[in-house]
Amino acid sequence: MTSLASKTPSSVRGGLLDLNQLWRSLPQALAKLDPRALWRNPVMFIVEVGSVFTTVLALTDPSVLAWIITVWLWLTVVFANLAEAVAEGRGKAQAAALRAAKQDTMAYLEDGREIAATELKQGDVVVVEAGQVIPGDGDVIEGIASVDESAITGESAPVIRESGGDRSAVTGGTKVLSDRIVVRITQKPGESFVDRMIALVEGANRQKTPNEIALNILLAALTIIFLLSVVTLQPLAIFSKAYQAAAPDTIAINAHGVTGIVLVSLIVCLIPTTIGALLSAIGIAGMDRLVQRNVLAMSGRAVEAAGDVNTLLLDKTGTITLGNRQASEFVPVDGVSASELADAAQLSSLADETPEGRSIVVLAKNEFGLREREPGLMTDATFVPFTAQTRMSGVDIEPSLQSGEGRAVGAVAGGRQIRKGAAGAVIKWVGHSSDEVSEIVDGISASGGTPLVVAEKGRILGVIHLKDVVKSGMRARFDEMRKMGIRTVMITGDNPRTAAAIAAEAGVDDFLAEATPEDKLALIKKEQEGGRLVAMTGDGTNDAPALAQADVGVAMNTGTSAAKEAGNMVDLDSDPTKLIEIVEIGKQLLITRGALTTFSIANDIAKYFAIIPAIFAAVYPGLDALNVMRLHSPGSAILSAVIFNALVIVALIPLALRGVRYRPSSASALLRRNLWIYGLGGVIVPFLGIKLIDLIIQFIPGI
Amino acid sequence: MAGWLFVITLVLAVAAAYRPLGDYLYRVVSGRKSNVVERGIYRLVGVDPNTEQTWGVYARSVLAFSAVSILFLYLFLRVQDKLWLSLGFDGVPTHIAWNTAVSFVTNTNWQAYSGESTMGHLAQMAGLSVQNFVSASVGIAVAVALIRGFAARKSQTLGNFWVDLTRITLRVLLPIAVLATLVFMIGGMVQNLSGGTDVTTLTGATQHITGGPVASQEAIKELGTNGGGFYNTNSAHPFENPTTWTNWIQLFLILCIPFAMPRVFGRMVGQNRQGYAIVAVMSVLALASIALTVGFEVHGGGTVPQAAGAAMEGKDVRFGVPNSATFGAVTTLTSTGAVNSFLDSYTSFGGMMPMVNMMLGEVAPGGVGAGLYGLLILATITVFVAGLMVGRTPEYVGKKIGAREMKLASLYFLVTPAVVLIGTAAAFATGHNSTALNTGPHGLSEVLYAFTSAGNNNGSAFAGITVNTPWWDTALGLAMLLGRFLPIILVLALAGSLARQKPVPESEGTLPTHQPLFVGLVVGVTIVLVALTFLPALALGPIAEGLS
């Protein structure tokens, strides 16, 4: 349903900031001025303390400059809070809608009782009809319905949910649009997907991720250093001013040293406010991006780990290849015509509802024009189903009631018996084989295909070549992965030869053939032993140990609850390919933080050149040479730096929410690109910005 | 021309020594076999050379050894008049003895005293020179412990401090120092136990010329990036630095070990290219600094230098301007702090360069060992920011830079600026800046320089300030102590934290830390994050002076 949304990340909602959103988040941003909340963010806390200080100074010794600077310092804090509020707000709106839907929901139990959705227990069976909201997470056990999942996924196109198979799982809070389904509830009360999602998108119990903590430490250290650098400047300034006693007092410096307002301005401009203001918004938005792709991450740690993944374990079926093998060729043995073989194959597959069986019928029709015969009309036929013991299936046709369609091909007296199946089993059934048959069978196996031998009582007719069809575009994606330094390993139950052939066709780096859940677990442990981080997807209960062991375990929503418990992410779309996108989101999250940190630090250079001469040129006129931007006056220079510092936060909110552009490529290429944009940009942009602001504000009287 | 030749041959010689000396150091610190002397020492100290220490034990050993060294040296200086070869000097006064003891144990070699008129020969040889050796060994040992942290696979231990100390002293410093002593003696340095000679000068005055074991002390003074001169005028004294070519050798000795340390890093982490990257960062910063210093001095602004063709004041014609300026840059780029010219008389910007060199944290190439661990910390911080930009949890030579690593690295790079800035501000706030000869920007530079030198364990003196008062001795002593041992503790803690990690294998997605891009980035981070911190203070000192 949402593969549309996930394949075009640029179309993700909320990527662009609209002013309405800013306006709506304003009350929230003001509420966040509470120092008890703000002290968690040391950089912005310092700015707030500074703002309080300048407010007091402006009150006791009012001047135009003092008030304007004070206002802009407060705005700096508000803008930072706004960034966080907007990021949270997007989730909050979603959460509010979810919560409303959830509270109003009534559950209609199968036995006719009607209870509140919140009282549902695991195992309850409920009936949901068109227009009703599904009261809890569960599996459809009866019926088929189109369901509107937009409340969770944001995707308005309805999806089909039906009993049995891949599409049986439904999520509480979504709405049935048509028909009627019976759902068995699988969640525990209060632990539904919606509950977890509400907690997640609200960021209520958001915990800082490991890299975020480390970055916060660096920012705190930088803040302390700049604080020290500015505070210790004061005695030096007093000394210098006393030495140049004839120098006039200015708004920036007098006999008592640098004025409090300017000192605070300098501190605020130097400490990394840009990244400090946007850091938590980046984290919230990163989680939000996952939610928008219908992935529920149980922890932020898992999202970061996704960016670090070295090895991706991908199940062959459904991820690398289309769900099923398909018949691609009929290879008759000597003396049998291809159409004869196709006919027998088709007959034996009529009742075979497996995708492989259907593909045989389709191929027979496409290549030899054999019309599909309705198994129900062939009353003379007895179909022999596939069993694990016989490892073949087929059909027995009574001689007397031979259908008109049937040609008496080599009929054994008494009717026809046709079998198709694994080579060994069919040969045993026939009783003899030939070199030719073995040759064909081996050839097909070697090419990665699966040979199905077709035989009619007493003789082998030929071999059907079943082939795995690799999804289009997979090779390119794996190439991208390789560029990113990620090794892809294909997991399959096939024999090594088949696996090798498909692995080569798909372009994966490695494969694990004849894999049991234990093998999978062992492989993960082996990779981790070498220091690698492993990501995998899984849905079955026997995947649970491996999912738990993997650093990033993405459970399919259609999967068993054991798998969902074991993994640290759940993909609502149950799309195993999503793993690749999760990795990209994880990387994008880290890159956004790194890029804005670099930008923030690089900004300092220009600010030094604006403020230092502004303060001290009055004392040592020679220092005016440092005023490379030729700013209008000391007052306008300091104010321009402060305003730029505040505005750049607002300007970068969209980037923080959307994340920097990410293209899979090598680390060197990524670094080079981001350094040019955010490093060099971070050096140049403030020079231009400050100059521009100065050109405007120089007209304010009193500056 | 001669100036260029001097610098170019020096660069070539240091480059030539990189591999052989680095490889030799690598073998010394990773070797296991001990010789008779070493076994004797281990038995004497009561150490089992085969045991390995955790970072905590390693750090405690460093601190214990240094504490005992300070105490011993302090007492030694206090009672030197009771011992032999005191040349009739009194015991050193308390505050000077404290300052000097701390100064030599911390590899700073700040000299609040005048060598030839304070210290007897025994104090110089058995007190100060011994610390010249072991304080250098401590620096190298700590650097090696940090490298072991990077190289280790899930290990709790970082080697054995006592073994490292012994091996580095006996196998690296001692033999090279002996060789250098002989070379210096050939070059004309004095090496005797003379109490001095009274001579009548040309003008008829009498002068007391002190002799002594100069050449031997000089060798380790340079090799261990110590810088504490035998004479007050340090390497400007003709007995301590007779000719241009002894000047060249002194600089070579200063630079050879700090520049060879990255090789040890590369060898131990199993990727020589990582060593080349680090040495490239050091070289870029060092060459830029030397070029700027020489440039400022040769083409110096100001009336007098313009008239003389270069800034000649305070420089010995024996060496000339480029050699003197190079010496000034090199001794501050390392933690040597020796001088062969009067930095206080440099042009404003020329005098700012030694200060900036030290403010960079002395990482280009820095003191023996200390330079490498300082630069590895800066590289770690660079890796963190740059690593995020490639979308992975940052990792450096296979070790993840997580919250704990960042905490330690951030604290490390907080310490020195804090010590320098707080010290300087305290001097001005309390009026103790009044002992500076000058007022105005130059007076500010003199005070700032003193704390920069002490906090970074350089020991270089701008001069032009009286610092043997109790306040200055105490304050600078504290600055040296904090500037040395807080970083060492943090480095060892970082090493312990890295050692416990399992290395992450390198892939295409790993930030390459051996390419020019990364080298440039570390240079940039060093300048923007470290040097800019001091820009406000510098603006009121040398910059204000230079732009007036």
Automatic annotation (TrEMBL), chain A:
InterPro entries on file: ATPase_P-typ_cyto_dom_N (IPR023299), ATPase_P-typ_P_site (IPR018303), ATPase_P-typ_TM_dom_sf (IPR023298), ATPase_P-typ_transduc_dom_A_sf (IPR008250), ATPase_P-type_domA (IPR059000), HAD-like_sf (IPR036412), HAD_sf (IPR023214), P-type_ATPase_bsu_IA (IPR006391)
Topology of the protein relative to the lipid bilayer: Multi-pass membrane protein
Documented EC number(s): 7.2.2.6
EC top class, as a word: translocase
GO molecular function, one term: ATP hydrolysis activity
Chief location of this protein within or outside the cell: membrane
Catalytic activity reported: K(+)(out) + ATP + H2O = K(+)(in) + ADP + phosphate + H(+)
One cellular component (GO) term of this entry: plasma membrane
Annotated keywords: ATP-binding, Cell membrane, Ion transport, Magnesium, Membrane, Metal-binding, Nucleotide-binding, Phosphoprotein, Potassium, Potassium transport, Translocase, Transmembrane, Transmembrane helix, Transport
Binding residue positions for ATP: 352, 356, 386-393, 420
Active site (catalytic residues): 315 (4-aspartylphosphate intermediate)
Stretches that traverse the bilayer: 38-58, 64-83, 213-238, 258-284, 605-623, 635-655, 675-700
Protein family: Belongs to the cation transport ATPase (P-type) (TC 3.A.3) family. Type IA subfamily.
Protein task: Part of the high-affinity ATP-driven potassium transport (or Kdp) system, which catalyzes the hydrolysis of ATP coupled with the electrogenic transport of potassium into the cytoplasm. This subunit is responsible for energy coupling to the transport system and for the release of the potassium ions to the cytoplasm.
Protein's recorded name: Potassium-transporting ATPase ATP-binding subunit
Organism this protein belongs to: Paractinoplanes atraurantiacus
TrEMBL record, chain B:
Topology relative to the membrane: Multi-pass membrane protein
Main location: membrane
Transmembrane segments: 57-77, 84-105, 125-147, 168-190, 248-265, 277-296, 370-390, 411-429, 475-496, 517-539
Classification via InterPro entries: KdpA
Subcellular localization: Cell membrane
Domain of life assignment: Bacteria
GO molecular function terms attached to this record: P-type potassium transmembrane transporter activity; potassium ion binding
Keyword entries, A-Z: Cell membrane, Ion transport, Membrane, Potassium, Potassium transport, Transmembrane, Transmembrane helix, Transport
One cellular component (GO) term of this entry: plasma membrane
Oligomer status and interactors: The system is composed of three essential subunits: KdpA, KdpB and KdpC.
Similarity section: Belongs to the KdpA family.
HAMAP family: KdpA
Function: Part of the high-affinity ATP-driven potassium transport (or Kdp) system, which catalyzes the hydrolysis of ATP coupled with the electrogenic transport of potassium into the cytoplasm. This subunit binds the extracellular potassium ions and delivers the ions to the membrane domain of KdpB through an intramembrane tunnel.
Protein name per the record: Potassium-transporting ATPase potassium-binding subunit
Gene (UniProt): kdpA
